[in-house]
Please model this.
Amino acid sequence: MLAIDELSAAAIAEAISIHRELGPGLFESVYESVLAGRLRKRGLKVERQVQVKAVFDGETYDPAFKVDILVEERLVIEVKAVERLAKAHAKQVLTYLRLLKQSVGLLLNFSEETMKDCIRRIVNDYKPE
Model:
């Protein structure tokens, strides 16, 4: 089993590669699909549009939200193709991490000129492995 830092490094490397090849301007679903495929080629377990339930005030909401990509049931990836990331996008990923009880998530925006400028690593109670 790969450490979470190795999983996130693999996802970042693939995101940068995809951005170099395809460039900005496509729909989020395209980047999500290609990134999931590339991570699967690396031999990783990858799920797309994972429906997650939430329990609030004694009520279960199913599905409460969908995670764009879940790698090895541990790394949450939120794919965006927006002009600029907003603070709300990072908060969204942090909330996903809290509800899923996971430690690391990536917020990837494919619409910037260079990919390295639009990668956000979000952590929730992170402890290096």
